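Deviation from plan, reported transparently: uracil complex.
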Amino acid sequence: MTPQPLETAATEALLAFWRDAGVDACYLDAPVDRTIFVAPPAPQVMHKASATVTALHGGQHGGMSSADAVNEARRLAAAATTMDELAEAVAAFEGCPLRAMGAKQAVFGRGNAKGSILLIGEAPGETEDLRGEPFVGQAGQLLDRMLAAAGLADQVFMTNTVFWKPPGNRPPSPQEQAACAPFVERAFALMQPKAVLLVGAAAAKSVLNTDEGLMKIRGQWREWSPSEGGISTPVMTTLHPAFLLRQPQAKRVAWADMLSLAARLDTAQVEPKA
Ligand code: URA
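Because the crystal trials were delayed, the predicted structure below was used instead.
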């Protein structure tokens, strides 16, 4: 049946509405309610990340169950002995559901893998998806300028809690973050940074496993001891540069966080880790 001009116009208007609302990819025939809690299967000894993944999702990623995806991520991550190998392992990983949701490529990391700061952001955006590197869009450029002004630019290796752009730039879900967490933890273990900087609420929630508000925890120093690597490091959360672009008056507190980070590293240099 040939569509009538009126139907074509209505369809185009609907598609434009979805696009403007951030629906930029279609990957399932039916909607998924990700707010529904699926009861976990029979209790068994399980790593925290895979327990979270199973409890929240219980689904299949790239043909594997959520728990298998975490195990596969752990296996691939553990085999990587350099950051370049880890980037290759991420690119080969099929267990994160985001991979099949319209992302163009894996976006793992950029910066100095031998530096003293591991920076963990939320997720790649559109520019990162096109270029294959984290924090290269407008927000990333602001972040670069702040790090440079604090004298930290060459000290940082940047990555994200997930390595594929979420559709519509929505925040990554806990199960997507859990599937990618073994790679973030391996990056930490390989780098052994003197400090970790979490950028934005989604990174703080995933790494610190907290629901505390961003404005409450930003600027505070805590300890992060990932299961991988057997080491712990001071970790601070700061505001996301995309938020600073929208709310420039918040740059003042983010700048205070940067100075706190720089000061912490000065201290770390005179007091090397045991
Ligand atoms: N925002 C993030 O959190 N990470 C990026 O890589 C880009 C934008």
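Residues 69 and 95 are 5 Å apart (CA to CA). We consider this an acceptable substitute for the interim report.
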